[in-house]
Write a structure and sequence with these properties.
The protein has about 270 residues and is an alpha/beta fold. The protein contains twelve helices and nine strands. It binds zinc ion.
Length: about 270
């Protein structure tokens, strides 16, 4: 009886075979991405600030390089974990001790991108910062603004290895992170650093504390808070000018992120999450 029906109705036969094969098809198909996996990585890496001013490398240049050199040119972490890295440039200076004191009050670690000729003035402070568990990184010897036409070997010797050697001499550790002054660098320099296992680190939130016209504690904290995002790298300064605004902004910034259950990490810890 059933055979007769099937002979008269080939379409029903086809449907029965097709439905019968479905479990097999599913077994052999690759597993579909779950919602969790697809949201683990960021859709886009980008730099945030208020009224970004001219005079630095354009934001889109940083963002394009972050995609071109995903392991060696870092503007922020590429996942969505609640981690944040505070970074301080251009020191050490008389403000560095005040900043370290604030960080230690909250038992958090930060990253200091130091300038070689400033290190010479505060060698004991550099040792102390390192011994307390903060990360010391390279920010050139004399804050020279590199450009696309920079003579690479001269720049390498005078700005990179000189500063790394001095930091190694004081701490025993050769830095593996370099932040170019003004965020200005070239692909040749990025590639030469990468060949030597040194990553170029930019930032994803610019607090503009370098701008003496607007660097009140209130403005600095406001920018750092308004643009909070997972795995951010926050740009601030402990040297290069009057940094009292930066010192005074720290309590509000740290308390805000801690309320949101963010963990403060050094930049090398953030990169390890890649
Ligand atoms: Zn700088």
């Amino acid at each position: 009886m059933f055979n007769k029906i099937l002979k008269r109705c080939p379409l029903l036969l086809f449907l029965l075979v097709f439905v019968g094969c479905q479990p097999l098809n599913n077994l052999s198909a690759p597993p579909k991405k779950t919602q969790n996996i697809s949201h683990e990585f960021k859709d886009r890496l980008f730099i945030r600030s208020d009224n970004y001013l001219a005079g630095k490398a354009p934001i889109d240049t940083h963002e394009k390089r972050a995609y071109k050199y995903p392991k060696n040119y870092i503007i922020e972490g590429n996942k969505n974990t609640k981690k944040v890295a505070l970074t301080f440039d251009d020191g050490p200076s008389i403000y560095t001790t005040k900043i370290i004191q604030k960080l230690n009050n909250y038992k958090i670690k930060a990253t200091f991108f130091m300038v070689g000729n400033a290190i010479q003035s505060f060698p004991d402070l550099v040792k102390k910062i390192h011994n307390e568990g903060h990360l010391i990184a390279n920010h050139s010897w004399d804050h020279t603004n590199a450009n696309e036409h920079q003579y690479i070997d001269k720049y390498w010797q005078e700005q990179i290895t000189s500063t790394n050697s001095l930091i190694k001499q004081l701490t025993g550790i050769t830095p593996s992170l370099f932040r170019p002054p003004f965020g200005s660098t070239s692909e040749k320099i990025i590639e030469k650093l990468a060949e030597n296992n040194i990553n170029t680190i930019i930032w994803s939130i610019d607090t503009q504390d370098w701008n003496n016209n607007i660097n009140t504690a209130q403005n600095i904290a406001s920018i750092a808070i308004k643009h909070a995002h997972p795995e951010s790298i926050i740009l601030m300064h402990d040297g290069g000018g009057n940094r009292q605004g930066t010192v005074d902004a720290l309590d509000e910034i740290i308390q805000y992120y801690q309320q949101l259950n963010y963990q403060f990490v050094t930049v090398d810890e953030l990169i390890a999450l890649h």
